[in-house]
């Protein structure tokens, strides 16, 4: 095999994240976004150090367990890789992918089960859409990146991961942009106006946030400024089932393709309120909050079942976000200390304790590793819920140095969970069982909950 060679290969197994593995001429070849038992046409893209990777060009034969897609955007949108599987087969596929990842790394853990999502459709409470075009110099689009073409954007007016309010807002904003001939931002020239549209909707209260991420440049080719009043009036006139209580303009002049910048409140307030169990949480644009609200209840319930006895205990909630896990624990614990590096999230967490009438929580802003050394309290319970990048060796060792009997780890990335578990093992801690929780139906994503125990 050589780079650029086209091969026909059958996928024999899968590994997280969404990697299909087949054998060609006696050597393993890995192809992203393929499914077990598919036969595909691939092109060798990398061959280095005995590892071979290929890009899938065409699916020649579907897997026997596949079914017709339900989505109008199938084969266009780059999301929902597992949409040709039944939900039961999705769960077994996710279990196999994560299990294979750990086994290949030499970590032989028991996988208890996969907790299903309460909803398989319209479950997302947040979506970030991009402005662009489907082909170079084509008409303005607003939606998701095109499958296999990250620089292209396809409209997704029928997306099944969100409810009708999201879809109505999405199409209405695109119509508004077309009506006023607003220009999309060009990533190469750094010229243009429109960049992203973020929509958040609370499952518990129905409150909706709409945030337009755009530059501070002229909004159209005639040099006119952004018609903020017209934008707000258009949104306020929509017949949504919820309530649009927050309309924001994110002044995004950054060079990266991310939503960032100073926020101007065009209407309402700069947050919405979500309900989780019986608690209320203030969520701002930049706050981290699980995108599947009902699934989050199952996720946190799974974690709390591992530490049922919290009475009179001091609990650390590390990488605490808006304080969800910490405030769930605070209903029974003596005291909760949370650490989170996103200032916006910490401010929201502090306000959330007031919303929920909790006076035994403290949320600290800063790097977890740096802040742990400044805390005098010794924890009885530690729960960690780090970002996709994981905790890293220094932070993992610092947490292990407390020497408490058990630590609960909630992970959104099995790959970095595996790395952190390896470090815990070196520090005298062992994990023997992982529970997967499906928060992202139709995609390859899955959450993990694991109890890590001190040896001896």
Describe what this molecule looks like in 3D.
It is a single chain. The chain has 456 residues and is of the alpha/beta class. The protein folds into three domains: 5-66, Beta Barrel (OB fold (Dihydrolipoamide Acetyltransferase, E2P)), CATH 2.40.50.140; 104-117 and 288-454, Rossmann fold (3-Layer(aba) Sandwich), CATH 3.40.50.150; 126-276, OB fold (Dihydrolipoamide Acetyltransferase, E2P) (Beta Barrel). Helix content is 22%, strand content 35%. It has nine helices and 22 strands. It has helices at residues 87-104, 164-179, 228-236, 293-304, 324-330, 343-355, 368-372, 393-400, 414-426, and strands at 6-15, 19-24, 27-32, 39-48, 51-61, 110-115, 126-133, 140-146, 149-155, 194-201, 207-214, 243-251, 262-268, 271-276, 279-284, 314-318, 335-340, 361-365, 381-384, 406-411, 429-437, 447-454. Helix 8 packs across helix 9 (414-426). The longest helix is centred in the N-terminal third of the chain and has 18 residues, at 87-104. The model has no long low-confidence stretch (mean pLDDT 95).
């Amino acid at each position: 095999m050589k780079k650029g060679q086209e091969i026909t290969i059958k996928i024999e197994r899968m590994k997280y994240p969404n990697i299909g593995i087949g054998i060609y001429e006696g050597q393993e070849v890995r192809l992203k976004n393929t499914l077990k038992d598919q036969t595909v046409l691939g092109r060798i893209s990398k061959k280095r150090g005995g590892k071979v990777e290929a890009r899938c060009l065409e699916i020649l034969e579907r897997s026997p367990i596949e079914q017709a897609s339900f989505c109008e955007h199938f084969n266009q949108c780059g999301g929902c890789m597992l949409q040709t599987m039944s939900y039961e087969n999705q769960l077994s596929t996710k279990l196999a992918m994560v299990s294979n990842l750990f086994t290949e790394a030499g970590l032989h853990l028991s996988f208890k089960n996969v907790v299903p999502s309460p909803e398989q459709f319209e479950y997302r409470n947040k979506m970030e859409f991009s402005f662009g075009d489907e082909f170079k110099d084509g008409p303005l689009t607003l939606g998701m990146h095109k499958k296999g073409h990250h620089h292209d954007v396809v409209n997704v007016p029928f997306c099944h991961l969100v409810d009708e309010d999201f879809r109505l807002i999405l199409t209405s904003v695109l119509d508004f942009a077309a009506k006023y001939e607003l220009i999309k931002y060009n990533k190469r020239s750094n010229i243009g106006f429109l960049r992203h549209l973020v929509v958040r909707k609370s499952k518990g209260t129905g409150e909706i946030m709409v945030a337009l991420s755009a530059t501070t440049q002229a909004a159209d080719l005639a040099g006119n400024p952004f018609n903020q009043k017209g934008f707000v009036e258009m949104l306020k006139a929509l017949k949504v089932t919820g309530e649009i209580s927050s309309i924001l303009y994110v002044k995004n002049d950054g060079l990266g393709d991310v939503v960032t910048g100073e926020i101007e409140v065009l209407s309402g307030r700069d947050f919405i309120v979500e309900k989780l169990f019986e608690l209320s949480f203030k969520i701002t644009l930049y706050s981290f909050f699980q995108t599947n609200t009902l699934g989050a209840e199952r996720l946190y319930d799974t974690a709390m079942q591992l530490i049922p006895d919290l009475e009179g205990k001091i609990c650390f909630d590390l990488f605490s976000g808006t304080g969800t896990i910490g405030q769930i624990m605070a209903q029974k614990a003596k005291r909760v200390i949370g650490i989170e590096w996103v200032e916006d999230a910490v401010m929201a967490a502090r306000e959330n304790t007031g919303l929920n009438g909790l006076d035994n929580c403290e949320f600290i802003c800063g790097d977890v590793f740096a802040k742990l050394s400044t805390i005098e309290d010794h924890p009885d319970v530690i729960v960690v819920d780090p970002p996709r990048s994981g905790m890293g060796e220094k932070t993992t060792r610092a947490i292990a140095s407390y020497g408490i009997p058990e630590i609960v780890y909630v992970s959104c990335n099995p790959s970095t969970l595996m790395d952190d578990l390896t470090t815990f093992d070196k520090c005298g801690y062992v994990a023997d069982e992982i529970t997967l929780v499906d928060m992202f139906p139709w995609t390859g994503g899955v959450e993990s909950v694991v109890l890590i125990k001190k040896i001896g």
